[in-house]
Amino acid sequence: MHMTKLLFKNILRHKLRTGLTILGLTVAIMAFGLLRTVISAWYTGVEASSASRLVTRNAVSLVFSLPLSYKDKIRQMQGVTAVSYGNWFGGVYISEKNFFPNFTVDPKSYLDLYPEYLLAQEQRKAFFLDRKGCIAGRKLAEKYGWKVGDSIVLKGTIFPGKWEVILRGIYHGAQKSTDETQLFFHWEYVNESLKKTAPSRADIVGFYMVGVKNPDQAAGVAVAIDSIFKNSLAETLTETEKAFALTFVTMFETLIIVIQLVSFIVIIIIMAVMANTMAMSARERMGEYAVMKTLGFGAKHVAGLVFGESLLIALTGCMLGIILTYPAAQWFSDAMGTYLPVFNVERRTLGLDLIAAVLVGIIAALLPTWRAVHLKIADNLKRIG
Q1: Angle of helix 253-284 relative to helix 347-373, nearest 10 degrees?
Q2: For 26, how many CA atoms within 13 A lie in the half-sphere containing its CB?
Q3: Could you tell me which of 51, 114, 41 has the C-alpha nearest to residue 244?
């Protein structure tokens, strides 16, 4: 009990220094948690991918299309349970700054393959029946204040012109990792227009989504699909949804590595600051530690005071940093929602924050503890007075 009171008195002896150290730790832990959340957000699409879905695209590049006629051939493959298709539409809302993912799809088959998109039954039916109908994710609808029945005009970039769609439903994600910032509307709506204005661009799709019966057979089904269209004018590349998502992550691999390095550099810097604080505190109290040893307190008591002070300061900064991570993450999500649609602070990130704080507290106290434990009583009694 007396040692605990002494520990808190030591911490509060230099309030400004302790406060600034805690502030530095708070900012460092918040920055560390935010950077680790950014890294997690890059991989959210990969982790949310289904093992029972395949993506078939043009083998040359995503830029090139595939004939609509491939659909029936893929559907007849052994192990395939469902096939859907669509295009990346790439439209913008009002102006170029209002960019968000938007696709033209075959509504029923696409939603059947994505049960994680939760949509009210009446909204689903209205979407299917209205050729100009669309559905949008909850976050996207909230961002622009859309309500069911609203008219939305998209300015086409890949498909020039102004395309009016009617919001027939707002979907919610079944999990936190489900992207709620996308908009889907009828592929047939665009295709009918292309048949009149640009016939050469009609009846083609950008990708096929393929449902497989057994995820363990996904690799074999993918090879079989690609073998059918080998040596055709539009060869295919079929891969699992996870592998497809990883191709986009690897495009930014260098950036992710840099963010990881910065997150650890932040911890190293605050570790140096913390070590300096503990060294100053221990140096000022060497005379006191000598008196304690004279009175019969052992090395474990002295070590307990130094380590206790260091860990308490580190954990206080950690808790404050974790608390501030949530509003910081919300602000970052609002600013970067288009590029990182799923931005949640995970428990794993909080665990890393705690581990980082404990490591900082322990490492910062090692040298001051060693000096305090091995001090010479006679020499350090001279510090008193």
Answers
A1: 30
A2: 14
A3: 51
How much is the pTM?
0.76
Among left, alpha and beta (phi > 0; psi -120 to 50; other), residue 88 is beta
How high is the mean pLDDT of the chain? 86
Supply the DSSP string of 213-256, one letter for each residue: S-GGGHHHHHHHHHHHTTTSSS-EEEEEHHHHHHHHHHTTHHHH
Q: How far apart are CA 190 and CA 233, in angstroms?
A: 24
pLDDT digits (tens, 9 = 90+) for 352-371: 889 988 888 888 888 887 87
Strand locations in the chain, DSSP E? 53-58, 66-67, 80-88, 92-93, 102-105, 117-118, 133-137, 151-156, 161-173, 183-186, 204-205, 207-212, 236-240
Instruction: From residue 279, give the alpha-carbon distance in Å to each of 49, 184, 228, 266, 286.
Output: 49, 60, 70, 20, 11
Pairing of strands 207-212, 80-88: antiparallel
- For residues 334 and 324, give the distance between their C-alpha atoms in angstroms, rounded to a whole number: 16
Tokens 């919300």 identify what position?
330
Q: DSSP characters for 130-181?
A: -TTEEEEEHHHHHHHT--TT-EEEEEETTTTEEEEEEEEEEEEESSTTS--S
C-beta of residue 10 within 8 angstroms of C-beta of residue 281:
yes
φ and ψ at residue 13, rounded to 5 degrees? -65, -45
